[in-house]
Specification:
11 helices; binds manganese (II) ion; binds glyoxylic acid; alpha+beta; 9-stranded mixed sheet; 5-stranded antiparallel sheet; about 450 residues; globular
Length: about 450
C-alpha cells in the first residue's frame, strides 16, 4: 500500500476551488495529423500497462499502489494536455479543459483505468487516453469550444476487488451504495479500510457527486470486446445500448470431514454442490442464445487435499440484452441452486452484489457519432454492448453515447487483447470529430 497516503483534492472541503475554476498551461499552435495521435495513444497505453501488481501480467485493482501510480500518470498527462486535473473523493482522476468562456457546462469523456486480473491493456485505458489526446490536440491548435470538456478516468469499473462494480462512476452519479463500504476483499480488508489507507475519507464520498446541470452529455470510446466489427471489416461502430447484468455471490455451507473415512453417501460436500450448480447454470444458458451466465470465481474451504470442503463460495454474472429475460433467468438459476443445495444437505446463502438494468445510448448522440463516422469515411454500423461500461452509471445524470473500436479476434479480458494502430487512429479521429461538431441536445 502507498506509504504516504494523500487526500483527494478538496474532498469534503467545500472551500476548495471548484472543478469549474481550473486553469490551463500555455498554448502552442502546431497541428497533429495522420497517425501521430494514434501513436501517442499507443505509447501511453503501453506506459499504463507497465503499472501492474504482477511482473508477469497486467492486474491493476481499485485502491492499490498501482491505482495510485496510474492515477498520478494520467493526471500528469491531463495537465500536459492543458487541463486542470485533480483526484476526486473515490479515486477518479478528473481533468477539465475550459470552453471559450469559463464555467460552461461540459461534454464529459472518459472510461476506466482499473483492470481485471491478467488483463488486456486496452479495456478502459483506450477511452481515457484517447479523450486526453483529443484535448491535447485541441489545445495544440489553440481551439476552444462553446462548451467545456471534462475527462474522467474512473477508478473502478471492473469491480474485481470488492465484487461490486462501477464504483467510480456511481460515486460521480450519486448512486454509490454506502453499504458496499463494509465489503471485504479476499485479504479481509474492507473497502472503508482500503479507502483510508489510500488516503481517501469514506465519509466524504458524497463530495464526488456531480450535478446533471454540469454536463451536456457523456461520450465513451471503448474497444468492442466482441467480434462484430472485425467480421464487418469496420474499425469503428456506434453503440445502441449496454446490456444489463446481475451478479450474485453464493455460499454453500456443508460439513467438513476426513477425506478417507466419511462414506461418499454421507457427505455434505460444499464444493461438489457448487460444481453441480455451475454445470446446471451453464446448461441453462447454453440453451439460450440471448443469455450469458458466467461463474468466474470459486473458493473451497478449508482448502486441503485430504479434507471434504465444508464451505464453497462462487460468483455468478448473468447478462442479457433484455432486462426481463435476465431477471427471469436469475430467478431460475437461484431456484436451481436452492434445489441442488437442499438435495445435498447444504445451506445456501445467495447475495445480489450488483444489479444494473439495460442502458440505452441516447438517439441524438448516436446520430452525432454516426455522422462523425461517415465524415471520417467509414460505413456506419450500430451494435449493442454485451459488456458493461461506466456510462451505465453516468446515464443517471446525463445522456450517454459510445463509440466502439475493433479489437483483434474480439478478444478481451485476456492478455491477447489487441487493437491495431490504424484502428486506434480511426477511433480517436472519430472521437475528435464528434467533439468538434458536437451540438448539445436542443430543448424539447
Ligand atoms: C466489464 O468489463 C464487464 O462487462 O464486466
Ligand atoms: Mn472490462
Ligand atoms: Mn471496460
Amino acid at each position: 500500500m502507498d506509504p504516504t497516503p494523500i487526500r483527494a483534492d478538496g474532498a469534503c472541503d467545500r472551500s476548495a476551488p471548484s472543478p469549474l475554476e481550473g486553469g490551463t498551461k500555455g498554448m502552442t499552435a502546431t497541428t497533429t495529423i495522420g497517425t501521430a495521435l494514434g501513436e501517442s495513444i499507443v505509447a501511453q497505453i503501453d506506459r499504463l500497462a507497465s503499472i501492474s501488481e504482477s511482473e508477469t501480467d497486467l492486474t491493476r485493482i481499485f485502491l492499490s499502489p498501482e491505482h495510485r501510480q496510474a492515477a498520478d500518470l494520467i493526471r500528469s498527462w491531463m495537465e500536459d494536455a492543458g487541463m486542470a486535473a485533480r483526484m476526486d473523493a473515490i479515486g477518479n482522476v478528473i481533468g477539465r479543459y475550459e470552453g471559450d468562456q469559463p464555467k460552461l457546462p461540459a461534454l464529459l469523456l472518459g472510461s476506466h483505468y482499473d483492470t481485471v486480473r491478467n488483463a488486456g491493456k486496452w479495456d478502459g485505458p483506450l477511452g481515457v487516453v484517447s479523450a486526453i489526446a483529443c484535448v491535447a490536440d485541441l489545445r495544440r491548435r489553440g481551439k476552444r469550444l462553446p462548451f467545456a470538456i471534462e475527462v474522467i478516468g474512473f477508478a473502478d469499473e471492473e469491480g474485481v476487488r470488492f465484487n461490486s462494480t462501477l464504483l467510480g462512476s456511481r460515486a460521480v452519479a450519486g448512486t454509490f451504495d454506502k453499504a458496499v463500504l463494509s465489503s471485504r476483499d479476499h485479504n479481509g480488508i474492507s473497502m472503508q479500510e482500503a479507502l483510508q489507507h489510500f488516503g481517501l475519507d469514506p465519509d466524504c464520498i458524497g463530495a464526488a457527486v456531480r450535478a446533471p446541470s454540469e454536463y451536456l452529455a457523456y461520450l465513451e470510446l471503448h474497444i468492442e470486446q466482441g467480434p462484430v466489427l472485425e467480421a464487418e471489416g469496420l474499425p469503428v461502430g456506434v453503440v445502441t445500448a449496454i446490456s444489463g447484468a446481475t451478479r450474485l455471490l453464493v455460499t454453500l455451507e456443508g460439513k467438513a470431514g476426513h477425506a478417507g473415512t466419511v462414506p461418499m453417501t454421507m457427505r455434505r460436500d460444499a464444493l461438489a454442490g457448487a460444481a453441480e450448480c455451475i454445470i446446471a447454470i451453464e446448461s441453462q444458458c447454453r440453451k439460450d442464445i440471448n443469455l450469458f451466465g458466467t461463474v468466474g470465481v470459486i473458493r473451497a474451504e478449508p482448502g486441503a487435499t485430504n479434507v471434504i470442503p465444508g464451505r464453497s463460495t462462487f460468483t455468478l454474472d448473468m447478462r442479457s440484452a433484455s432486462d426481463e429475460h435476465r431477471l427471469q433467468a436469475v430467478s431460475l438459476a437461484v431456484r436451481t441452486i436452492e434445489k441442488i443445495a437442499q438435495d445435498r444437505g447444504l445451506a445456501p446463502q445467495i447475495k445480489v452484489t450488483y444489479e444494473q438494468r439495460r442502458t440505452p445510448c441516447a438517439d441524438w448522440l448516436q446520430a452525432q457519432v454516426s455522422s462523425a463516422i461517415a465524415r471520417q469515411g467509414f460505413r456506419t454500423l450500430s451494435l449493442p454492448s454485451g459488456a458493461g461500461h461506466d456510462g451505465m452509471a453516468i446515464a443517471e445524470i446525463t445522456d450517454i453515447g459510445m463509440i466502439f473500436v475493433r479489437c483483434r479476434g474480439g478478444i478481451s479480458h485476456h492478455p491477447d487483447e489487441h487493437v491495431a494502430l490504424d484502428d486506434v487512429t480511426s477511433g480517436v479521429n472519430v472521437l475528435l470529430d464528434v467533439i468538434e461538431h458536437f451540438e448539445p441536445k436542443r430543448a424539447g
